[in-house]
């Protein structure tokens, strides 16, 4: 299922595709902003999204073989809710 499928599904309840598109877009935009601020997003019965920091780690450039350091990064993790499956 992709964003277009979600819009089609929402348009059955909301009305037009344009209104449904705005609703779905606002939903994802709100989730994105919350995660960027480090907040946890919880959808009851579905699951939760939260941001974790990955540590920096050493690696090698595959072409030259020189060692490089991969910087720390923020990643989004999803934890499935009990009611999902």
Question: What can you see in these coordinates?
Answer:
The protein is of the alpha+beta class. 38% of the residues lie in helices and 32% in strands. The protein has a single domain (3-80), classed as Irregular (HU Protein, Chain A). Strands 1-2-5 form a three-stranded antiparallel sheet. The chain has a two-stranded antiparallel ribbon with strand order 3-4. Helix 1 (3-14) packs across helix 2 (17-36).
Mean pLDDT across all residues, rounded? Answer: 93
Corresponding CATH architecture: Irregular
Provide the gyration radius in Å: 19 Å
Unreliable segments of 5+ consecutive residues: none
The beta-strand count equals 5
Using brief descriptors, characterize the structure shown.
HU Protein, Chain A; two-stranded antiparallel ribbon; alpha+beta; 85 residues; elongated; single chain
Outline:
The chain is an alpha+beta fold and 85 residues long. The protein has helices spanning 3-14, 17-36; strands spanning 41-43, 47-54, 57-60, 67-70, 73-80.
List the helices and strands and how they pair.
Elements: H1 3-14, H2 17-36, E1 41-43, E2 47-54, E3 57-60, E4 67-70, E5 73-80
């Amino acid at each position: 299922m992709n964003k277009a499928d979600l819009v089609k599904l929402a348009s059955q309840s909301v009305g037009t595709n344009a209104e449904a598109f705005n609703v779905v877009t606002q939903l994802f935009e709100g989730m994105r902003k919350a995660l960027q601020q480090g907040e946890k997003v919880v959808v009851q019965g579905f699951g939760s999204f939260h941001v974790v920091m990955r540590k920096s780690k050493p690696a090698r450039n595959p072409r030259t073989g020189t060692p490089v350091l991969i910087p720390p990064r923020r990643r989004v993790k999803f934890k499935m809710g009990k009611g999902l499956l």
